[in-house]
Amino acid sequence: MKVLASSLSILPGPASPHYNFLNSLVIIPSLLSHRPNKPLLSLSSQRVSALAPMDSVQSSSKKELPAGLDAVMEEEYASQSVLLKEFTNISTIDKAWTFKSSVGSQAMFSVSHPNLLANKRRKNILSSQISKGTDGSVSFQWAPFPIEITGASTMVPSPSGSKLLVVRNSEDESPTQFEIWGPSQLEKEVRVPQSVHGSVYCDGWFEGISWNSDESLIAYVAEEPAPSKPTFGDLGYKKGGSTDKDSSSWKGEGDWEEDWGETYAGKRQPALFVVNVNSGEVHAVGGIGRSLSVGQVVWAPLNEGMHQYLVFVGWPSDSRKLGIKYCYNRACALYAVRAPTYKSEAKLLQPGGDATDDVTAFNLTRGISSAFFPRFSPDGKFLVFLSAKTSIDTWAHCATNSLHRFEWPTDDKFTSVKLVEVVPVVMCPKDGCFPGLYSLSMLSNPWLSDGYTLILPSIWCSMQVILSINVLSGNVSRITPHNSNYSWNLLTLDGNNVIAVSSSPVNVPELKYGSCAGEASSGATWSWLDVSSPIFKCPDQVTSLLSALQFSIMKIPLKCVPENLPEGAKKPIEAIFVSSNSKSHDVCQPLIVMLHGGPHSVSPSSYSRSMAFLASTGYSLLIVNYR
């Protein structure tokens, strides 16, 4: 069993001829102890070498062992592998939802953990009843067992919580499967063949699955159907192709088309579709050319006398795609397009209305170079979105975001849309003050009950925090504790309360329930309660090892700073230092320097299985957040 690190340096450790792994960064658990005769790892730009003890080369063993290993080392290799498995078995909450019930609220958590042998993740659903006491206490009554979910690509509850959409993408050329579940049984099953569209996007970026207000239609993003491939037989090319699968013919690859790069292999053209929950009909949304790759679709509010519209994010893709993962410097805009109009549950009119209507998608954000994560206010009066215009202007992969809003038109005319900047770009924050928005996700329903307070996760230096934003006044408040260096992951809202996860490099995730003592939009104080949960059950050995560790966020001042640098570039950089809390002065622990990618990114002070495992075996970690 091996631990892989994308970028690291390991000191001390002389070079050695005994192990030579070219162009790889592999840490072998049996080499992570610090006995004097124990091998240590060292890193150069071309290789990782491990020094095996000389006496182990000369020792003999009755059974065959790999070169450079003795029986003691092999035993430690096995024990370290067991320890690594215990660290990786700690579960992760991927998503969460809450639903109103007659006795309070119910929460549903999508939980996963690695299946190391299968190199996959096992997913399950765990439910809980949320009860609130008159004294302000909150308790979660958990279901006795989780329910494993197999083959599900994603799940999306309807707005009322009465239905659940389960999407199952196939791994071959089989149809994509949509399942509509009610409170007690499967109510509808729709199979969409590859001739209609390919896999549904469930990636968190292009991904967009949205129920309409009466829960009869679902809009979503899927790969457009692949063009037919040329077929060849004994006599050469077959005109018209062939759908038959026989040994006398084979299919070519056809014209090459660029995909969207890293983590998007085979994903070339995300397109917009709508499925009718009652009839099972699926139709592509018209008016969107192939020059746009689409994502993040939401239904616009239905105003009397207006057509029903869909709002989506469009990325120009008529030139080189060059990848989109971690590339927030890709220009994008919000578009509005008419949704397919159903005259009845079984009969479809022309997409977007009558055949004579102009159904071309309209660019809503012409005045800005980047717009994504569109969210309508609860009353439907305005639309908010994030912008990475600073990334577009500077070509930095990830830079400070801004938040904007505009009033949704009450007619079909979008030319009068006026953008309002709610939270501007922060170029050089003052020490300890709001550093600007760095938000890489947004809840599908991020609103408190007042209809204008938005709850949003954001990076704050080396931490992830949760913010409260008044989208009318632009007031921004940090609602997670100011005296904590932990990172917080926003899961979902329960009315005016927040369900989140808090963790640190030396503390496994813990479930938290946040409540506001006053008006959230006026900067009122939030209190956070610990929630007892079976999700993050931690083995005793892991708990013991982590309790012997500590971490701090270091501020490292710059030396010899040129005067012509911008003020922000003169500020100290940060690094997260993880070490033993009982360090002896006469023992120097080896250090692993962790370097994040990006390069415009950050390593937050959250729990990482691999880093926690390395620290528990005696290494100090320096996790550098360089600019």
TrEMBL record:
Region ranges (Disordered): 232-254
Sequence ranges of Basic and acidic residues compositional bias: 241-254
Family of this protein: Belongs to the peptidase S9C family.
Any one GO molecular function term: serine-type endopeptidase activity
Protein name in the entry: Acylaminoacyl-peptidase
Lineage: Eukaryota, Viridiplantae, Streptophyta, Embryophyta, Tracheophyta
Classification via PANTHER family: ACYLAMINO-ACID-RELEASING ENZYME, SERINE PEPTIDASE S9 FAMILY MEMBER
UniProt organism field: Heracleum sosnowskyi
Keywords: Hydrolase
Domain Acylamino-acid-releasing enzyme N-terminal: 63-542
